[in-house]
């Protein structure tokens, strides 16, 4: 069923839902049998829970595409996440992955960045009013080296990790935090007074366009994605390829790529073909793509348990390696870090590229793929040092 992206993120429509269970039967992660799926939907619709959904649903929104009636079952599941958090709270280990916590996984990496990347982050904090700007997104704040390219010179990047869009709050059902995030971003946009904003992150593009307005974001800023900007500049000749990247590559899809539709997720493929790469698709790709791995920690039954995140990441890497492709390409920097972290512990090594690095190589620059591996290893190290020590802590903190 084809819908506009905003419709995939509207509320669950109980009247459209026929309780057929397709969303759970055809889910690539849950794979319930029909009887169990129908019972789960019945229980969730009545305000109850379901152990399997609350333990394993990765809130990747694939079910909203699967649903033959456009009922948006993902939002029903997120409501159950929210209810669970209100009743049971969050485990102690979850706070290492909460976006605005001071001692979280992103700040662990950012505090260890080299001086030149820290200087970039400081520059991006400029709040001088402007007409147009580029919002980096919190994942790019962990990988600012991705923006160090000639074809990105002149882009007016503004933002910081403190101005995270709250995507991880959304996918864990944390409504209170989303309202706080929307209010904070309202102040950010009001201070800049900009009319146009390009976003370097598919998650952020969706959050600003389709989700945060539901939680109080008030803006008339024209929003666009770097994906479209990149392809338009390649097509127009403003970005000229000087050499080919002649590799076999498979693509790690953003969870939001599927909801933006074929025109959106086809752009990274067009760029890779123009770069000279041969694309080998994973079995789960495009509309049925697996989350990069972080989604394994989103359900309340996990609460960002690193074992669940690792298992989900390795699941994707297994598929990627099985294709025989020599490279994994991500167009989301969050996916880049998840794939790089998984590759840090995986016995079979593959190159992990960001789409921006593919373009950098083709214009004659020499992107340092070692930085991807370094950030992946830092993510793993931070989890081991700062999160795993809390896995036996029974303390829980309730949300609102």
Describe this structure in words.
α17 (333-345) links the parallel β7 (327-330) and β8. The mean pLDDT is 94. The strands form three sheets. A four-stranded parallel sheet has the order 6-5-7-8, with helices on both faces. The chain has a three-stranded parallel sheet with strand order 2-3-4. The chain has a two-stranded antiparallel sheet with strand order 1-9. It has three domains: 5-88, no CATH class; 92-230, Rossmann fold, CATH 3.40.50; 239-392, Rossmann fold, CATH 3.40.50.11810. It has helices spanning 5-8, 22-25, 34-45, 51-56, 62-66, 73-88, 105-110, 115-124, 138-142, 167-170, 175-192, 202-211, 226-236, 257-260, 262-275, 306-322, 333-345, 355-362, 369-387, and strands at 90-91, 132-135, 196-199, 222-225, 248-252, 278-279, 327-330, 351-354, 396-397. The longest helix has 19 residues, at 369-387. It contains 19 helices and nine strands. The protein has 400 residues and is α/β, with parallel strands linked by helices. Helix content is 46%, strand content 8%.
């Amino acid at each position: 069923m084809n819908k506009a992206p905003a419709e995939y993120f509207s509320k669950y429509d109980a009247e459209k839902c026929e309780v057929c269970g397709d969303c759970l039967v055809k889910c690539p992660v849950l794979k319930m049998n029909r009887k169990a799926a129908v019972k789960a939907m019945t229980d969730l619709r009545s305000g109850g829970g379901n152990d399997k959904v609350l333990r394993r649903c990765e809130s990747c929104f694939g079910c909203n595409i699967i649903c033959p009636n456009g009922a948006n079952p993902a939002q029903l599941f997120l409501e159950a996440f929210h209810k669970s958090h209100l009743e049971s709270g969050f485990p102690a280990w979850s706070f290492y992955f909460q976006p605005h916590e001071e001692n979280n996984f992103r700040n662990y990496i950012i505090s260890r960045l080299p001086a030149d990347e820290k200087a970039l982050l400081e520059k991006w904090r400029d709040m001088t009013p402007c007409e147009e700007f580029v919002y980096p997104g919190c994942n790019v704040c962990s990988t600012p080296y991705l923006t160090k390219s000639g074809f990105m010179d002149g882009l007016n990047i503004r933002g910081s990790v403190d101005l995270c869009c709250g995507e991880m709050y959304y996918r864990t059902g944390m409504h209170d935090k989303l309202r706080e995030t929307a209010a904070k971003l309202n102040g950010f946009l009001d201070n800049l007074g900009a009319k146009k904003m390009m976003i370097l992150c598919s998650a952020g593009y969706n959050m600003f366009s389709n989700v945060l307005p539901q939680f109080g974001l008030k803006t008339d800023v024209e929003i666009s994605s770097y994906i479209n900007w990149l392809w338009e500049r390649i097509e127009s000749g403003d970005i000229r390829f000087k050499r080919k990247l002649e590799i076999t590559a498979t693509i790690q899809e953003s969870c939001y790529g599927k909801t933006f539709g074929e025109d959106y997720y086809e752009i990274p493929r067009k760029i890779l073909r123009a770069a000279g790469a041969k694309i080998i698709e994973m079995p789960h790709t495009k509309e049925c793509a697996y989350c990069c791995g972080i989604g394994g920690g989103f359900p309340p039954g996990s609460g960002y348990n690193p074992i669940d995140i690792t298992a989900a990441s390795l699941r994707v890497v297994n598929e990627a390696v099985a294709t025989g492709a020599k490279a994994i390409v991500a167009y989301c920097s969050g996916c880049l870090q998840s794939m790089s972290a998984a590759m840090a512990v995986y016995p079979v090594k593959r190159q992990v590229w960001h789409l921006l690095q593919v373009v950098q190589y083709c214009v004659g620059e020499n992107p340092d793929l070692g930085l991807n591996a370094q950030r992946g290893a830092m993510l793993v190290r931070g989890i081991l040092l700062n999160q795993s020590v809390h896995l036996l802590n029974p303390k829980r903190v309730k949300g609102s």
